[in-house]
Structure prediction request, 383 residues.
Amino acid sequence: MPAPSQTDTGFPTHPAWMEIDLDALAANYAELQRRAGPSIKIIASLKANAYGHGAVATAKTLSGLGTFALSTGSFRDAVAIRDAGITTPIVMFGGNLPDGIADYLDYDLIPTVYNMATAQAVSDTAKTPVPVYIKVDAGMGRLGIALPEADAFIRRVAALPRVIIEGVYTHLSFNDAVGQEWSKRGIDRFNALIAGLRDSGLDIPVTQAVASSNLMVGHMDGSNAICPGHLLYGLPSVAPDLADIAPFQPVLRSVRARLIHIGEFPDDPELKTGGYHVKRQGPRTGVVPLGLYDGYRKPQDGAPAAVLLQGRRLPVLGVSLEHLTFDLLDLDNVAIGDDVVVLGADGDDCITLAELANWQGCRAIDELMNFDGRLPHRYYGST
Prediction:
């Protein structure tokens, strides 16, 4: 395995980590641009610390690839990106109060507005004209100015001093065929809104409605930008019967930990009456420092949860606050410090993110959020 290009500290003292493949990220970006077409702008979503992959390293890679803009709802992540010297435009998703606009402008961040209080705060705070994006709720029911009110709202914002409407966008994610049709209807209504604004002389430089779900099923619209998130990181965003994720590579290569303890147990019937021994099949167990605190969750009852060591699946016996204990079965040539794969490939076998999430009764994205901020990252490839 090649040496990582960037390594966070902490491995010797707490030997558990995530491995992130930035070359896979670059390949996914290229595939998205190919599908969308060369004239379509990519606003790359880095929300939630780049879906748990690390906002700064991800931003460096995507900026180096020429992405039109980055986007996130986290002010902390946006500041870290700016502090790393990255000057690519950053569109801030909704998440601020009007009082936070001054901080946004100090860091050259582009606010999203969907109420007049925030729009007025931009106008009052800015010393020179600054761009904003307007979010329209075209049916999601989360954030945005409601579609029936959007035309009048956008015109009011456009009349404010020192405010430039650079973009208008919406979001209509879906998972199944019913949701796909709903999304198409919402995007059609959004496109009608944009057309009406332009027909009356209000030109919007950037429009965006299509994100990962639409891209997976090949649904492009008349907008000139896309905002992919899941697909950038090789994550499925729709049910597998609608589209194949195969052209997109997982950016999370693996989650690994090093063996810190080998438990040796005599053939004592009393030991088999309690604790992890009830499920133990072999005479020895292994322990890695990857527990609830580190993002690993207790598997559901009956789930065949396992780790990989020397290409073998070894059953998980239990997870506590700071440790994961597994059965070594008949493996006898193991040693303290050996790499244990919690997620990823080892030999001819591989534990996928979807498989791990299924054992723990959650979605792949939930699994990423479990680990985010708890484990250091090793980055492979170019930043």
Observations:
- Residues 177-199 form the longest helix (23 residues).
- Confidence is low (pLDDT under 50) at residues 1-10.
